[in-house]
Structure formats: structure tokens, C-alpha cells
Amino acid sequence: MIIRKKDILPFDFSGLSIREYTASLSEKSSFAVIQVPPKASHRLSWSKRSDKYYYVLQGCISFSIDGEDHILNEGDFCFLRKGRKFKYENTTEEPASLILVHTPHFILDEEVFE
Fold it and tell me: Among 4, 22, 39, 66, which is most buried by a count of CB atoms within 10 Å?
């Protein structure tokens, strides 16, 4: 299967630009690319269903996992088991981007946002 970037329209999620490549295919996993502009953030949340795999493709992201803060730079990886509360933010003046894999695939109704 080939999915071209030009065929996936990004959607805005509280200032994050997300290209969700495979969630609608109901596969075992889903793949997304997230653009995180300077000062943009993902609010505190957790998944009732999916483990999450984040890879920092570009920039620097401040991650909080169950209240513990971490700085992730380009090339760093973060694994979150379902149920772990997290949030992240780009605290820099430079854009950042993340790859996100959900296993099993992403279903919005199974995500909890606080």
C-alpha cells in the first residue's frame, strides 16, 4: 500500500497539524505525522485502547508522562502504554515534528482529554 502525503489533508488539533495516514483503514496499527509549531501543545490525555509510540523527527518537545517531565530531541523516542497520562509542548521558537504510531489503531472515542 502506498499513501501519498498530498492525498492526506492535515487537520488542526488545538494548534497541532496532524496527518493521520492509516487510522481509517482499521489496521492493527495507525501512523500519523504531527507538526508542532513553536509554543503549541497537546493537552493532558490518555488512551483507553492504544499504546502510543512517539518519535521526534525534528526539533525539541517537552513531554510530561504521569507528571514526570522529559525533554525529547530529534531522534529520541517515547513509548506510552495505554492508560498513561501524558501531555507535550514545543517550548522552543523552532518548529518540531513527531511520528506517532497507535497500536491498535487510533479511535478518537477511545482517547480521554482532560
Answer: 22
Tell me the C-alpha distance between 36 and 60, whole Å: 10
The pTM (predicted TM-score) of the whole model is 0.93
Instruction: For residue 11, report the phi and psi dihedrals to the nearest 5 degrees.
Output: -125, 150
| Cell, residue 86 | 501524558
Positive or negative: CA dihedral 113, 79, 77, 109: negative
- 26 grid coordinates: 482499521
> What is the tens place of the pLDDT at every residue in 47-101?
999 999 999 999 999 999 999 999 999 999 999 999 999 999 999 999 999 999 9
Q: Domains of the chain: which residue ranges?
A: 12-113
Task: Give yes or no for residue 26 having a pLDDT over 90.
Answer: no
* Residues 12-113, CATH architecture: Sandwich (2.60)
CA–CA separation, 70 vs 50, rounded Å?
21
Gap between the Cα atoms of 97 and 110, Å rounded: 24
Kindly give the residue spans of alpha helices, DSSP state H, lying in the chain.
none
